[in-house]
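Board notes, transcribed. Complex of a protein with iron/sulfur cluster.
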Amino acid sequence: MKEKTSPTMTAKRSKTILGKLLNYYGEPVADLQFQNLYQLCVAVVLSAQTTDKQVNAVTPHLFSKYPDFPSLARANISDVEEIIKSTGFYHNKARNIVLLAETIVEKFNRKVPATREELTSLPGVGRKTANVILSVGFDIPAFAVDTHVLRIANRIGYIASENPLEVEKAITTTLDESEWKRAHLLLIRHGRVLCTARSPRCSECPVNSLCGFADKTA
Ligand code: SF4
């Protein structure tokens, strides 16, 4: 079979990187806490520009007060703001999740849609959020590019681009669809633990020998 390539990364090399990260971190799981698609959808929207830990700190209260889309759709936005304040950008986020709930109740019969096109029609849901919902919520092959993934893809040498869609293509073309979810979760874990934005711990990194980052710390 012909090996798939991106401009700077072969499929073989990409699989080796994924294997080394998997060996190092173990099977990754999503850090956002959720029990069902409603909770996942809301939590992912709240996770923009903040940490999953911060979201996990507010969602138990939010979901106990508003356990499903209909109750959230009827919520008073200022009450929601009060609960999610610590996640930042809370005016927009509160408005978005209430509108999202209204839209899902009215247009999608209370069910989270399972296509990227429908998901991105929802308030507060862009391509990255839609890809997380598809991948984590529905197990549909999709690859979300967040700030960690974008940074690491550039450092390792998948691509030189700040464009999330280009990064998504550069990575997904080197991996089988079945590996996308795991790759996404592993790169996020790597970005939080070793390949941090300010001070990557390159001397401890399992993919050091495969990484093209010019400013490696070791
Ligand atoms: S060697 Fe350094 S820059 Fe490269 S992936 Fe590892 S931690 Fe990140």
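DSSP finds eleven helices and no strands in the chain. The radius of gyration is 18 Å.
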